[in-house]
Each structure stands twice: as structure tokens, then as C-alpha cells.
Amino acid sequence: MSTRHTQSADLSDPPRSSPDLDVRDLEKRTRLMRIVTRLIAVSDLGCREIARRAGLPAQKVSDLLSGRIEHLSVEELQILYRTIDPQPTAH
Asked: Among 16, 71, 72, 81, which residue has the least CB neighbours within 10 Å?
């Protein structure tokens, strides 16, 4: 690996001590993101309608569908999940 590539990777990687890198939180957000993304895909509701019903900005749903998980909290993902699937089944 070249020194130049290493330096650019160091600049783009957040510090390991960042609270956003809590592994359990990231795993939970990732699982929720996958579930909610699938539910949106099979839903009869449009993205804007889902966001409206969830009380979230439409940009949050757009971020989710673009894979920008860092823009959504666990709470926001849970709200979206309950909005799309108000009678969740046991997983």
C-alpha cells in the first residue's frame, strides 16, 4: 500500500474512539436498516408517505434507501419500522 493511499484512508476513517462506532449499536442499526428497506420495497406506500406517517423528513427515508445508515438513529429506524409494519411479528 502506498504512503499516499494510507494517508488518505487515515483522513477518511473516523477515530476508533468515536461513540458512533459502538459495534452493538451499528449492528442493530444495520439489521433494522435491512428490515425497513425490505418493507419499504414491498409496501404500497411511497417513500414520502412513509416519512410523513413516521413524522420524519423525507430525506431520512432517502438516506436509508441510499445506505447512509449513519444519518439515522436506532429510534428513527424503529419509528419507520412501526410505521410500515404496525403489527410486527416475532423475529
From this structure: 16
